[in-house]
Amino acid sequence: MTDVAPSARGSGPAPGGAPLASGREADVYPLGPDRVLRRYRHGGDVGPEVEVMTYLHRAGYPVPLVHSGGAADLVLERLSGPTMAAAFLGGALDVVAGARILADLHRRLHALPARRSSDPGVRVLHLDLHPENVLLTPAGPVVIDWRNSDEGPPALDRAMSALILAEVATEPGGKLVAPAGALLAAFLAEVGPATALDRAVTLRTRTGPHGPARLTEAAALVRAAAPR
To answer: Where are the beta strands (DSSP E) in 14-149?
Structure first.
């Protein structure tokens, strides 16, 4: 969804007008009818993100086509359709169907060989695969935002998704507490217990927005929601 140049920050001024979407780290701007610019506000190197998305696109996994990338910008294929989160809120998607989509996206990703490792137990991991990062396009679900991707055991990726859902389900006064909790239980029913949960918590303390106390509460919810 974005474009990049060789400096530490963006390659130039952002396109005029409001962004199409904004997340915790990046904004997405339209670049005509078929492309978007994804720009990270605080700079960074999108090189690893370009490499993994290009690899996955060539392997047939549903990611946006990368047109170019450099510095803190990515130019990506423009996709239509709501996020999975928006579909839940709008009543177009139920919890069981959403859990199956998330589980299937994990299975399809982890069926592919790793890019760098020759260890058969190592796969490409998204490590931020949750309903805000899945677009429901007319051609099917597409996974966006590969900033945190890495390689490792698939169980870590599944545990991270469960932990993120539990963070939403433990948000004080949050409007998504009940649906996130229901989705967490349905997701775990599809994929099994989060066996790498402790490792996911350790990683999430570095990459996520919440501190240890909130993550401890979320992890306890994941354990309580695990299928018996």
So the answer is: 21-22, 26-30, 35-40, 66-70, 73-77, 123-125, 134-137, 140-143
pLDDT along the chain (228 residues), means of 10: 32 66 86 92 89 97 95 93 94 96 98 96 98 97 96 98 97 90 97 97 94 96 92
Q: Name 166's bridge partners.
A: none
CA 173 to chain centre: 24
Burial of 171: CB neighbours in 10 Å, binned 0-12, 13-18, 19+ = middle
Only one residue has tokens 């140049």, namely 5
- Distance from C-alpha of 109 to C-alpha of 56, rounded to nearest angstrom: 8
Using left for φ > 0, alpha for ψ between -120 and 50, and beta otherwise, residue 164 falls in alpha
**Which strand (E) or helix (H) includes residue 182?**
helix 177-191
Q: How many CA atoms lie within 13 A of 155 on its CB side?
A: 9
Q: What is the pTM of this model?
A: 0.90
